[in-house]
From TrEMBL:
InterPro entries: Lsm1, LSM_dom_sf, PTHR15588, Sm, Sm_dom_euk/arc. PANTHER family: LSM1, U6 SNRNA-ASSOCIATED SM-LIKE PROTEIN LSM1. This is U6 snRNA-associated Sm-like protein LSm1. Plays a role in the degradation of histone mRNAs, the only eukaryotic mRNAs that are not polyadenylated. Probably also part of an LSm subunits-containing complex involved in the general process of mRNA degradation. Component of the cytoplasmic LSM1-LSM7 complex which is involved in mRNA degradation. GO terms for cellular component: Lsm1-7-Pat1 complex; P-body; ribonucleoprotein complex. Interacts with SLBP; interaction with SLBP occurs when histone mRNA is being rapidly degraded during the S phase. LSm subunits form a heteromer with a donut shape. Component of the heptameric LSM1-LSM7 complex that forms a seven-membered ring structure with a donut shape. Keywords: Cytoplasm, mRNA processing, mRNA splicing, Phosphoprotein, Ribonucleoprotein, RNA-binding. It comes from Dacryopinax primogenitus (strain DJM 731).
């Protein structure tokens, strides 16, 4: 009976070890690499990793190497299907071409988040990291 209960803990990551994965972090960054290790807190170790920066259907990669990720920063982790990876309709471009567009997009997003936080604060909510946000 217990074997029918799916993994809901970091133990479910065992199938992803030594496979190429895509990880989305809380701050919006996307990392691609080979998952080498993890622990009970879902802290991850990626090898041969790079940050993938997207803008529309274009992307650029920034080499990171070995990367340790604290589990609480992981929003999404998924295995990359190597057979389908080359069929994705994305175009790789030089980093210098996409970086200004990406930075402008990030600045706009940050301004929107500040505006949203101020509106929420006017209605009684606390800014992230503010009083009452500790655990």
């Amino acid at each position: 009976m217990d074997s029918l209960i799916p993994f809901t803990t970091s133990g479910s990551l065992v199938d992803c070890v030594d496979k190429k994965v895509l990880i989305v972090l809380r701050d919006g960054r996307k990392l691609v690499g080979v998952l080498r290790s993890y622990d009970q807190f879902a802290n991850l170790v990626l090898e041969d990793s790079y940050e993938r920066i997207f803008h529309g259907l274009e992307y650029a990669d920034v080499w990171k190497g070995v990367f340790v990720i604290r589990g609480e920063n992981v929003v999404l982790l998924g295995e990359i299907d190597l057979d389908v990876e080359d069929e994705v309709p994305l175009v790789q471009v030089p980093l210098q071409q996409i970086l200004p567009l990406h930075n402008a997009e990030n600045e706009t997003r940050k301004k929107n988040e500040v505006e949203k936080a101020n509106i929420l604060m006017e209605h009684g909510f606390v800014k992230e990291g503010g009083e009452g946000d500790g655990y």
